[in-house]
What does this fold into?
Amino acid sequence: MPRATAAIDWHARARLLKPRGEALINGRRVSAQDGTTFASLSPVDGRVLAAVAAGDAPDIEVAVAAARGCFERGDWSQQAPAARKRLLQKFADLVEGATEELALLETLDMGKPITDSLRVDVPATARCLRWYAEAIDKIYGEIAPTAPDVLALITREPVGVVGAIVPWNFPMIMAAWKIAPVLASGNSLVLKPSEKSSLSALRLAELAVEAGIPPGVFNVVPGYGHTAGKALALHGQVDAIAFTGSTATGKLVMQYAAQSNLKRVWLECGGKSPNIVMADYPDLKRAAKAAAAAIFFNQGEMCSAGSRLLVQESIREELLAEITTLAGRYQPGDPLDPSTQLGAMVDETQTRRVLEYIAAGREGGARLLLGGRRVREGSGGCYLEPTVFDQVQPSMRIAREEIFGPVLAALSFRDLEEAIRIGNDVDYGLVAAIWTRDINAAHRAARALRAGTVYVNCYDADDITVPFGGFKQSGNGRDKSLHAFDKYTELKTTWIDLA
It folds into this structure.
């Protein structure tokens, strides 16, 4: 566990930090082949953190070749499960040992509060690596119930070279959700982090090499989605692609896979999640606290954010009053101050995008209860107030499109059937929630809501042992849990005639 954050001068630490931006391919830090870089700008105050290699198709080519060569030689894929387990556990140990450095990188690169980076992001990353390390030697094959003159063996084999494209909102955690099961399965990996937050992924790859994971097993090529990401998804020697990001980009990734070698495609895309509060729920203060955290945590930059608050009419005013009061705790502050709960937006582009949605909410006739403005402009960073809209209609843009910012759209409903209808009436189906004391209503809603996860009397509960993913245009496949192995392994049947 990290030391007490209040005892650390994070600004002094930040001044001393000198992150490296080169790619990591075949175990070595390398520049982009054409020498191109882009500046990693901190949304905290606009400082330049590093010149990051702008990888492109030639860099992806080298990385995939390294991953393929390593896989075919069996440097990792043919190691005994116990050996892979030991090295992944050492990798997790090194991540824990670098907690403060990694947390600072995460905060400076994408703007989240340092306390969240320390208490959530780094521990979750290490826990994910350790959990899949422990799972390696506990996955068994099968023998099919065939006739007695036949022996049919069903075994899992690594799919080969996996390409992973991860987003900027939880750079380490989202990377770990790919890295851990990919490597545990015996695959080689080429990871393309978001150009908005590449630094922690590059540092993770260094720690993997330090742990003894063979060169070529885990490669990181930073760059833009339309260059490096596209090249990775199109590459004919990549056997599977795992993507987390927007639905629009996920559709492109599927197209690239079809245009090339029909590689397996696993998508975790956007969300517009309904958080339904029934009038019979007895503790509105608890529901309000969870609703505020569901949209303001991580600056609302979460695919699973509870961005649609569906409130039964009789309690609407009371619940919204409580939420607007709680929003005062989420006023934007210095992300390097341990007391800050709402940090900076990831960059100027995302800040403007959210402001455009706020303007659309006003123009569309929604009632602005709170926030809606840019603040702390003198800091040089990107900060938005927590924002709450009331009287939102299901047809409005702010009720249908993923905003990815601290903007809550409150809608009202009369009964459970209407709440379920509104909840399902979007293109997404990542998560949903219902707050009620009626167990029958809870079960009816859980069955009827088209979402990969349905929370009952809670929101954003999490454990590595349960799968995460969505229905509809929120994607396919599942991260976390043993189900993640389904994405990165092939099932092989060996049929032996004993007659």
Notes: The radius of gyration is 23 Å. The chain is about 40% helix and 20% strand. The mean pLDDT is 97.
